[in-house]
Write a structure and sequence with these properties.
It is a single chain. By secondary structure, the protein is an alpha+beta fold. The chain has a single domain (5-125, 165-182), classed as Structural Genomics Hypothetical 15.5 Kd Protein In mrcA-pckA Intergenic Region, Chain A. It starts with a strand and ends in an 11-residue tail after the last helix. The protein is built from 4 helices and 8 strands; from the N terminus they run E-E-H-E-E-E-E-E-E-H-H-H. The chain is 21% helix and 26% strand. It has an 8-stranded mixed β-sheet with strand order 5-4-3-6-7-1-2-8.
Length: 187
């Protein structure tokens, strides 16, 4: 059996406009590595806990101590996602609760791309700790209005380079070629 390639679309649930990525990964990718790939492709900083959910099961690294969660360090992607149009959920940061819908778009035998890779997407992900999907629209409203009382504070917190529409596939793919897929995780 050949190692099949999965084309996945990852959408940040509740984002408007939609924040999404389409990526290619091997079916044998461990869930803990898929987490790293998602962190890099979405632009998160791997600063919070995460969990995958498929049907009634939850998956997270054993050291997170999430009761009844299966160890994501031992589960390959194809064990929970293996049919076209099937969905799983990925939650990042249990406080801000960034939920992502992951859909298996296509199963391929081969790809000319370096795997994993990002092949499409839209928008920059929200900054960490901005209040979740509920707080992000308020942040965007503040930084769009230089007369808003919190404008200077938010711009200083975000830095000069935050642009909600920014998305750079070549930069993401360069990171994905690095060790741990460009996602630092101190173990």
């Amino acid at each position: 059996m050949t190692n099949q390639i999965y084309q996945l679309t990852i959408t940040l649930t509740g984002s408007d406009p939609k924040i999404w990525r389409t990526i290619l990964v091997h079916e044998e990718t461990l869930l803990v590595d898929l987490h790293r790939i998602i962190q890099t492709t979405m632009g998160w900083t791997n600063s919070h806990l995460h969990m995958f959910k498929a049907k009634k099961n939850e998956y997270a690294p054993e050291e997170f101590g999430i009761e009844e969660a299966k160890n994501s360090r031992e589960i390959p992607l194809h064990k929970i996602l293996n049919k076209v149009n099937q969905h799983i959920n990925y939650e990042y940061d249990f406080g801000d609760s960034w939920e992502h819908d992951i859909v298996l778009d296509k199963i391929m035998e081969e790809s000319n791309n370096h795997i994993p890779c990002c092949i499409d997407g839209k928008m920059q992900c929200p900054p960490e700790d901005c209040g979740g999907i509920w707080g992000y629209p308020n942040l965007l409203k503040i930084i769009a209005d230089p007369k808003h009382k919190d404008y200077k504070e938010m711009k200083a917190w975000l830095g000069k380079n935050f642009q909600p529409e920014y998305f750079n596939i070549p930069a993401i793919n360069k990171l994905l070629k690095k060790k741990d897929f460009g996602c630092i995780w101190l173990e």
